[in-house]
Amino acid sequence: MRVFVVNLEQSVDRKLFMKSQLDQLNISHEFFPAVDGRRLSPEQMEQMCNMEVVRAWPDLLTPGMIGCSLSHYHVYKKMVADKIEMAFILEDDTRLSQHLPIVLNEVKVKLKTGTLDLNEPILLYYQSEELVEFAQYGGVTLSNNFAAHYPVDIWRPITTAAYIISLSCAQKLVDLIYPIRYSPDSWAVYHREGAIGGLRCILPLPVESGFFKSDIGYEQNKPINRLIKYLESKSIFPVVQLLKWRRKNRAKQQNRFYFSNSPLNWKIIKS
């Protein structure tokens, strides 16, 4: 399984942070150049994006989000060009569990044997503004109490911070998402459009947030985010410390989940 870390050229601190973790875990990896959407010219935006959709959703499809979508799109293109069977894609602001190598190896084996479906990307980290419900049934057990579970509502878990994806899914996504008109973590939309067969999440999470502030401006159109960026730029005590605490607290709130026997609203599991 190839491991790609998506990283902006100027984000040297994040690159060193990820390299240190991956080296300590003895995980072979390569850094993949991210696209900085803020540096795209109007002409490039017109060429690379569905501007009708971008103009309709300006608070979602910010230049930073478009750059993120393009970054993952280029990873998928590389997978297709190089015929990479499966890849673990990481963003450069994640904290990795010591159990990650075992999880990756077991997922690879179970994907190759068909125990896990190659048409279903697997999130090793997710976020959600709401409590996420996972099915008690249909899970695939891994070592050290980890397991791959189905979300009851496929619209709930999002982010592309850490996930495993197969070549077949990458090919379909290359055909679907360009010109860019979706955020990169539109898993439910990808399922609706037939590019992926479903979605699983590894629980407990073997990857966590690194609690970095955003360096690509996902939500730059919102006044509160412009204010936060300004306050952090001044490095005034205790503003920076309080904002870091805020990011940690918010990240923890976005990882909450529970299990139930509710039927999946998107998939029928064969018994």
SSE topology string: EHEHHHEEHEEEEEHHEEHHE
DSSP strand count: 12
Strand content: 15-25%
The CATH class, by name, is Alpha Beta
Specify the helix fraction band.
Answer: 25-40%
* CATH architecture annotation: Alpha-Beta Complex
Please, how many domains?
A: 1
Computed Rg:
18 Å
Low-confidence stretches are none
Shape: globular
CATH topology: Spore Coat Polysaccharide Biosynthesis Protein SpsA, Chain A
SS-based structural class? alpha/beta
User: Number of helical runs?
Assistant: 9
Task: Walk across the major sheet and give the strand order.
Answer: 2-1-3-9-5-10-8-7
Largest beta-sheet details: 8 strands, mixed
Average of per-residue pLDDT values: 91
- Give the CA-CA distance, first to last residue: 29 Å
Write structural notes for this entry.
There is one protein chain. The chain has nine helices and twelve strands. It has 271 residues and is α/β, with parallel strands linked by helices. The strands form three sheets. An eight-stranded mixed sheet has the order 2-1-3-9-5-10-8-7, sandwiched between helices. Strands 4-11 form a two-stranded antiparallel ribbon.
Helix and strand layout, with pairings?
Elements: E1 2-7, H1 12-24, E2 30-33, H2 42-48, H3 51-56, H4 63-82, E3 86-91, E4 94-96, H5 100-113, E5 122-123, E6 132-135, E7 140-141, E8 147-149, E9 162-166, H6 167-177, H7 187-192, E10 200-203, E11 207-209, H8 223-234, H9 239-253, E12 257-260
Parallel strand pairs: 1-2, 1-3, 5-10, 6-12
Antiparallel strand pairs: 3-9, 4-11, 5-9, 7-8, 8-10
Helix pairs in contact: 4-6
Which terms summarize this structure?
single chain, 271 residues, alpha/beta, Spore Coat Polysaccharide Biosynthesis Protein SpsA, Chain A, eight-stranded mixed β-sheet, two-stranded antiparallel sheet
